[in-house]
Automatic annotation (TrEMBL):
NCBIfam families: rrf2_super. InterPro entries: Tscrpt_reg_Rrf2, WH-like_DNA-bd_sf, WH_DNA-bd_sf. One of its GO terms (cellular component) is cytosol. Coiled coil: none annotated. This is Transcriptional regulator. It comes from the Bacteria. GO terms for molecular function: DNA-binding transcription factor activity.
Amino acid sequence: MLLTKKSEYALLSLISISKSNTPVNVDVLSKELDISKSFLAKIMQNLSKQDLVISHRGVNGGFVLKKPIDEITILEIVVAAEERNPMVFECSDSIQSCPNNKAKLCGIWPLLNNLQFKVNDFLDKLTLKDIAQ
């Protein structure tokens, strides 16, 4: 599940917004990126709720970044777009929250947990600036 279309579209949209000197509306983004307007609007709403973008209403309205591109992490974007933490595997993040109560017997949980930590750490160190160039 790590990165779905929601994450991809959120990243592409924020890159586009970061390159504009004026607010960019969903119509423009939708056409530019060839993404369904309604699907993109939901993604942008999630990004706005998580304070990654500011929405300006009106004729010249649209979205602008709330923070500089070097302060917005890829992890923040993915979490906002997906509305949950990214997961390498459908495995719980702690032994106590294992859905089938067999984590203590699971030989791969430590590996998966370590991998998840490394992925999250990598995404948290990577910023929008790193990929927008």
